[in-house]
Amino acid sequence: MGKRTGKALSWIGTFAVMLVICLPGLWVILSAFRPNIEILSKPAVWIPNSLSARNYVALFGLDGTQVAIPVGSYFLNSVVIAATSTAIAILIGIAGGYAFARYRFRFKNTLFLGLMLSRTVPGIALSLSVFMIWSRIGLIDTQFGLILVYVALNVPFTIWLIDGFFRQIPKELGEAAQVDGCTRWQAFWRVEFPLARSGIASAAIFAFLTSWNEYALASNLTRSTDSKTLPVGLMDFTAQFTIDWAGMCALAVIIIVPALILTFIVQKHLIAGLTFGGVKG
């Protein structure tokens, strides 16, 4: 009886904590289908009187009105920038993580420590210096400039994470493959890479979400629809005296949904990767 009571209390406590964590997200989702007047009402209306897709109709101009905010362009920019920066960061992370896990070279520990220390510096602290350098070399308001910044942000984390996964794979497996006639590259690609695939997927999803959700640097380095991402586009709903909370919440849901879908798609690899890399020797 004591175990059942403890288990029930544990579930209740977990549910209460998750409810508090998810409440802001739930409020945003509900507000995406409500009018501004209901969102701003006092006292707050927790249970909507009615839900409609009018905010999305106005957002995409489906009612024939002119679209004030180019959501399609922002979405495409976000996809291109996040996917490209993630792909580059993962390629560098695989190479760097494998090198740190398998090879001995001078200043190895110093270089690894330097990479880890770079993660302690928040990106916003570097925004002014990055802006000044980017403005001098003509990378302000370009997708390429933002991709470079996100690659720099993600590479230390991907190297650290992937290094941990490769350390869990016995070196003897690669050596045995080489004894059987494989080259170093073939041993990596056919033996070691498949075993570390879950860890690489974990690093990729974290890098993608970092690039997808980042706002501070993107707001400083982008200006036009050619490079603005969805998080920066949220500010288009603010005016001098008013804020279109309904439209902002509708766009926020558009930002959240692809990230959730991607997470669910790679959930199996994500959980396996985090579990596999959780114990380091």
Key features?
281 residues; single chain; 14 helices; MetI-like fold; mainly alpha; globular
Structure description:
The protein has 281 residues and is mainly α. The protein has two domains: 2-52, no CATH class; 71-276, MetI-like (MetI-like fold, Orthogonal Bundle). 70% of the residues lie in helices and 0% in strands. The protein has helices at residues 2-31, 36-39, 54-59, 71-102, 108-118, 127-137, 143-167, 171-179, 184-195, 197-213, 216-221, 230-233, 245-265, 267-276. It is globular, with a radius of gyration of 23 Å. The model is unreliable at 277-281 (pLDDT under 50).
Write the layout of secondary structure elements.
Layout: H1 2-31, H2 36-39, H3 54-59, H4 71-102, H5 108-118, H6 127-137, H7 143-167, H8 171-179, H9 184-195, H10 197-213, H11 216-221, H12 230-233, H13 245-265, H14 267-276
Helix pairs in contact: 1-13, 4-7, 4-10, 7-10, 8-9, 10-13, 10-14
Q: Bin the helical content.
A: over 70%
The whole-number mean of residue pLDDT values reads 85
Order of helices and strands: HHHHHHHHHHHHHH
CATH architecture of the largest domain: Orthogonal Bundle
CATH class annotation of the largest domain: Mainly Alpha
- CATH fold assignment of the largest domain: MetI-like fold
User: Mind telling me the C-alpha Rg?
Assistant: 23 Å
Number of domains: 2
Oligomer: single chain
Provide the β-strand percentage band: under 5%
Number of helices: 14
List low-pLDDT spans.
277-281
| Biggest β-sheet strands, sense, barrel | none
Counting DSSP E segments of at least 2 residues, the number of strands comes to 0
Name of the CATH homologous superfamily of the largest domain = MetI-like
